[in-house]
Amino acid sequence: MNSNHPRRIPMVDPGDLSAAQQEVYDKIVGGKRGRLAGPLHVALHVPELAERWSAFGEYVRFEGELPQRVRELAIICVARFWNSQVEWAIHSRIAAGEGLGPEIIEAIGRGEAPEFDDELHALVYEFMRQLLEFGQVADGAYRALHERIGTKALVELTGVAGYYSLVAMTLNVHRVPMPDDAGAPLPGLPEGTPTRHPTRLPPCKTGRRNS
Which parts of the chain have pLDDT scores under 50? Predict the structure, then answer.
């Protein structure tokens, strides 16, 4: 990890772990992540928390019914809302790799209204926008997305919002440094700069509607 981000607590040193930490560390690096990353550098200070955190995160990130592109769209909405530089730098790059259009990623990063050609992506964005800003989703937005993706995937999407909000808050408050392989940070938000309020996501624009 680079070191130009001011830290508050030390990141866990994998070469200096207690027996309990080592057990959890081995599970984490032996799992789907393959490494100790992001907020787990903080959570491993409390190995009992880190073990449960990692298991929850593996499901939310890698398993379930949500298409990966939809999942990453939801994650970058969370990262932008909470002004999380590290979360954005990691997941905007993953979202691009999953085929989410660069113009959509850039608009969300700037806090501007993205334009979607894919109706499902527009519905997911609107669901996330309302959930993050209000802690609730209007009946119309809820029903429209539920009809498209079903109960299980909708529950998973809500889990994505909650889990990655936890990740964003942890990264922000403990000032976890940017990993060396991260993508570009959020535009107009210098690394390590606190902000008073989340960034409101504006309603999106829609182009052609895909079935």
Answer: 1-4, 211
